[in-house]
Amino acid sequence: SMCREEPSEGLSALLKEITKGEHASVPIQTGLLQDILPLASIEYFDNVQDVTLDAVNLSAYKKSLRSSSLSHVLPKLESHEIQGKEDLDGYVDTSLVYTLMGENSHLVKTHALEVLWERQGGEFAIMTEEGSLSLSMFADILYETVATEGEWAAARRIAQLTGKYDDRLEDVLLDIIIRHKRLGVGRAYSSDATFTEPHKSTDIVTTIDRFSGSNMAEKVLTQEIILHLGYLIKVEPELFENILTLRSWYFIQLLVGQISRQENLPFGEAYLALLRIAPHDIYSRLRATLKAFTQEVTDFYQQENLNASGTLALNTVEASIVSEAVESDNWATWRVESGMLGPRKATFYKDIWYLLKQCSALVIGDRYRIESRVGSEFTLESTAGERGFALKIDTLLQDIHAPEYRQLTIEALESMSRLFKQNPEFHIENDLILDVLIGHAVKFAWEQRFGGEHYNDKRSEAWETFYKLSPVETDQAFIGALMALIRT
User: Fold this and answer.
1) Is the pLDDT assigned to residue 352 strictly greater than 70?
2) At 308, which helix (H) or strand (E)?
3) Do residues 182 and 129 share a domain?
4) Which end of the chain is more exposed for a tag (fewer CB within 10 A), N or C?
5) Which spans in 56-178 are helix H?
6) How many Cβ atoms are within 10 Å of 76's Cβ, its own excluded?
7) Exposed (0-12), middle (13-18) or buried (19+): which is 160, by Cβ within 10 Å?
8) Taking all residues of the chain, what is their mean pLDDT, rounded to a whole number?
9) Contact of 336 with 406, CB cutoff 8 Å
10) The predicted structure's pLDDT at residue 1
11) d(C-alpha 228, C-alpha 232), whole Å
12) Is there a single domain that holds both residue 340 and residue 272?
């Protein structure tokens, strides 16, 4: 043995080399085990002669991860400090491994897993007391744990991260199509997101991923909604008699609205609450929504109505219509190009600051993201020309991935800023949600041209038409939509 009262020459030589930081021309790193263990490298050997490796025992890893002797010395992150994986983007890989191995909540671990997976892939190896463990193996363990404990938001995120999907999706699509219905997936009202003929499950999943929101759990929830719809259309087809296109996102919105009303929550918080609900409860809520579909739709749209105080003078409404500052023979292309550049007006951010003083909040971008809301209290914490406020608004605009929709949002903000400035006594007591305003503007513009009959089945065409309108025409539509939301 090398461990005797007097160190052997071999041990002494080895210790000297370790102290120097090199052995046989190989660099040596020393330090506390808790610091260097996550950095250990793994080398794989395939087809080693006369050597048989035992199958991986995941149960041993589960026990190791739950009772690691390192967990109590690793830094712990509070759940309220980590709202999403974006909060971990600045962490180095070592810190992310610490987060996985430490005593953190499962949701925080899920966010850390996502960031590390995006950087290194599922085969990236981390060290545990049981040995090497790949991220994909860790994900399987964590998925089983959170699913067993009913943490469905985390379970859905991990399922999306690891590419889990239900192969029955193609069968459900066929069941829907043979009943002369169409299936719309994701948030887009476009033909690319609508299935009118059979497709493979992988095609459906790809389309869901393309047209869903940024929250990974939403994509898996969309699969669940489709599966539930497929079952219900077989056992209770009468629930779908007056529905031509089954849009998964529309049903998600109705469920969010339902939770918002029942629990008195803003849309963003209600959306997160929905993602935490168990699949069987999602089914029950969806079935109840279909049974009272007309009333649910009415209640949902009533939530979008605005309560206003003060007077909105109609003569200023007419006078506020924007003049044509640019010319184009293709406004849809112009919006894509302009949306890439961002706001051009010098007073844009200052105007938004003043607009914010006349409503309870502005919700810019995805209304189902809590981060999209800018409360009027920001006007108390900043000045009209403050750079920090401008950066906050610009960040929300940049979070809108489609440049053409980003440009529409800019136009809507400019339209509202101008209108409210001309009516300083006018005040909206609710949040002014730009997504809602733009959606109603699309509906307003379509009905002005073609009437309101069958609008829900023409949404895709209505949006395509709206993008082709000039800024003067969209400005009129934004104002018309605001008036409709107030009067309803």
Assistant:
1) yes
2) strand 308-309
3) no
4) N
5) 58-66, 93-101, 106-120, 135-148, 152-161, 169-177
6) 13
7) buried
8) 86
9) no
10) 44
11) 6
12) no
pLDDT digits (tens, 9 = 90+) for 256-289: 999 999 999 989 999 999 999 999 999 999 999 9
Q: How far apart are the first and last CA of the chain?
A: 87
Crossing angle of helices 403-421/348-356, nearest 10°?
60
Query: What average pLDDT score do residues 125-152 get?
Result: 90
Kindly state the helix (H) or strand (E) to which residue 5 belongs, with its residue range: none
Residue 257 sits in the same domain as residue 182? yes
Q: Residue 98's pLDDT is what?
A: 86
Quick one: which of 36, 49, 54, 28 has its CA closest to 97?
A: 36
Return phi, psi of residue 360, to 5°: -75, -30
Note down the domain range covering 216. 168-302
Total domains in the chain come to 3
- Give the H/E segment covering residue 229: helix 216-235
Collapsed DSSP state (helix, strand, coil) of residue 196: coil
How large is the average pLDDT for residues 163-191? 94
State whether 274 and 221 are in the same domain. yes
Measured CA to CA, the distance from residue 300 to residue 470 in angstroms comes to 30
Q: Which of 49-63, 212-226, 271-285, 291-305 has the lowest mean pLDDT?
A: 49-63
**Could you give the 3-state DSSP secondary structure of residue 297?**
helix
User: pLDDT tens, 371-410?
Assistant: 999 999 989 888 888 899 999 999 999 999 899 999 999 9
Q: What angle do CA 245, 251, 255 make, to 5 degrees?
A: 165
Phi, psi for 50 (deg, rounded to 5): 65, 20
Q: How far apart are CA 301 and CA 413, in angstroms?
A: 22
- Asked whether the beta carbons of 448 and 269 are under 8 A apart, the reply is no
Q: Which helix (H) or strand (E) holds 26?
A: strand 26-27
pLDDT at 426: 95
Q: Is the pLDDT of residue 122 over 80?
A: yes
Q: Which residue has the tokens 């590419």?
A: 163
The CA-CA-CA angle for residues 8, 9, 11, to 5°, reads 65
Task: Decide which of 109, 136, 162 is a domain's last residue.
Answer: 162
C-alpha span between 388 and 402 (Å, rounded): 24
DSSP 336-398: HHHHHH----TTHHHHHHHHHTTEEEEE-S-TTSGGGEEETTHHHHS-TT-HHHHHHHHHHHH
Give the predicted TM-score (pTM) of the model: 0.79
